[in-house]
Design brief:
Blueprint (H helix, E strand, L loop, with lengths): L12 E6 L26 E6 L8 H14 L7 E6 L3 H12 L6 E5 L4 H5 L2 E6 L8 H8 L4 E4 L4 H4 L6 E4 L4 H13 L1 H19 L1 H24 L6
Parallel strand pairs: 1-2, 1-3, 2-5, 3-4, 5-6, 6-7
Helix pairs in contact: 1-2, 1-6, 4-7, 7-8
């Protein structure tokens, strides 16, 4: 795998769905068969999406989008890979879609993994196809890893992802829109890399512990200053 933003005409891009974010193993290199890759970091180029494989996370739409990407751009067959990590009711349905389209050999669905942070470090894009969200921690984790993000326009996703700058926002349950943005990133290494860098910068400036601490401090200071001004206002004479 290569680091985010290193997409080249001869390297695959993989779209990854994850079920959990647990322990980290920085030395891990993953191939499509799930074994450690002895060839090092320059052979695979992957994109990430993190979610439980349940209806609300809608991995089925991403599986369909992956099939659509290959149908629209057959030349990407040698470069694009789909990886769905995790267990849940949509895993078998997603696999059936891939088998039915004859692209299951280009996908890896290994079930549960506990080395997600390490896998993120070797990817090139993060995809979140959910039909409902709150504030997605996995989007923030992907941005902090330097990954451009493709996410659906639900919950706070559009507040986290700056459309066209740190990634793309697409309508939920819309495999055509999702496929179009995957093709965009797979076809433009420079743009993908720039979005990843912008996402990393945004994560550091807006969502890091230091940034949040500074924001709370500023809020506290402003409230204290306001209270002091109120206390200094002279009372009217009777």
């Amino acid at each position: 795998m290569t680091s985010a933003g290193s997409l080249s005409p001869n390297s695959p891009l993989a779209i990854v769905i994850l079920a959990s974010v647990l322990a980290s193993n920085p030395q891990l290199r993953v191939r499509l068969d799930g074994h450690a890759d002895p060839r090092g970091a320059d052979d695979y180029n992957r994109s990430l999406s993190d979610a439980r494989m349940q209806a609300v996370k809608d991995q089925v739409t991403l599986a369909r989008a992956f099939v659509m990407v290959l149908a629209r751009r057959p030349s990407l067959r040698d470069r694009v890979r789909l990886v769905m990590i995790g267990d849940g009711p949509l895993r078998d349905r997603s696999m059936a879609i891939l088998h039915g389209a004859g692209v299951a050999d280009l996908a890896w669905l290994p079930g549960h993994r506990d080395d997600i942070p390490a896998i993120m470090q070797g990817l090139d894009c993060f995809v979140l196809p959910s039909i409902a969200e709150g504030v997605s921690n996995t989007i923030l984790e992907a941005m902090a890893s330097g990954l451009p993000v493709i996410a659906t326009d639900v919950g706070a996703n559009s507040e986290l992802v700056d459309h066209g700058v740190t990634g793309f926002i697409v309508p939920p349950a819309d495999e055509q829109a999702l496929a179009a943005q995957i093709v965009d990133l797979a076809s433009d290494a420079g743009r993908s890399a720039a979005m990843g860098r912008a996402g990393r910068a945004a994560a550091e400036s807006r969502f890091s512990l230091q940034a949040m601490t500074s924001a709370y401090q500023s809020l506290y200071d402003s409230q204290l200053a306001s209270r002091r001004r109120v206390q200094r206002v002279p009372l009217p004479r009777s």
